[in-house]
Amino acid sequence: MFLGIGDFARATGLTVKALRWYDEQGVLVPADVDPHTRYRRYTIGQLEQAGLVRALRTAGVPLAAIRSAMRDGGSPHEALRARREAVLAERAREDRALATAERVLAGAGLDYVVRLRTTPPLAWVGVVEYVVLPVGADADPVVAGPGGAVIDADAAIEGALLDLYASLHADGLAPIGAFWLDLGRPADDAGAEVGLCVPLAAPVPEGWSVPGRRTIAGTRQAGRELTTDHVVTDDDPDDGTAVHPAFAALVRAAAEQELSIDLGTLRQQCPREVAGAPGDASRTVVGLSVDVDG
Question: I want to staple 291 with a disulfide (CB 3.0 to 4.6 A). Which of 48, 70, 139, 265 is the partner?
């Protein structure tokens, strides 16, 4: 038994225009087409197929995926699973974007205390990690490991620090303070180079390096820096989608004091625990600092 395109449209809830489009796209091809009038006719058995197409389209499954599932040996279940994963990923992206906006709004109201202080000469050594930043906050930062393997950035940075400390210990070179992240090392593409540095009592020997690591070293001259602290919270995402309020506070303080800052020296200090008021829990604080020119 055949149904004309009008009756088939009424039976399935699809419009005649949609049925013609699905035919042209090879998604839902009529069982019979009159060679003279081009009038399309469908079988009763195609009602279920049309219902599946409509359900998948309503769920947002791309037309190409439906065509593959219906005609090219694919699976409607797989097409729906892929769509579900895409929706969940987009929801996660939106959640991160909302959390970032909340953090920026909250940070905008914080009164960051920015201090201008002198800094003595300081020898240092470090290693460099290349971090691929997420595009549109779709994913967490990663690094390219051996063979191009993707590695979580936090795990890679922790591994680089362990290698640095192990090499220093093996050669009897003891850090004299906590590590910091050198954030002022832009790369040529969407990524960034992060220097993981530790202070030393004296410069490392000429040619000293961490095996298998890009090693950097130098001596900071005496000068001045602007510095402030930021309390780390659970809803403090680090996805690169907004200007961090602590950094904004440093720039604002420099402008107010008519100071020229060198953004290539931006540093984030090692997180530290700060005791709270009586009855309050301790807080994790990171320092942010930047050198002042002149």
Answer: 265
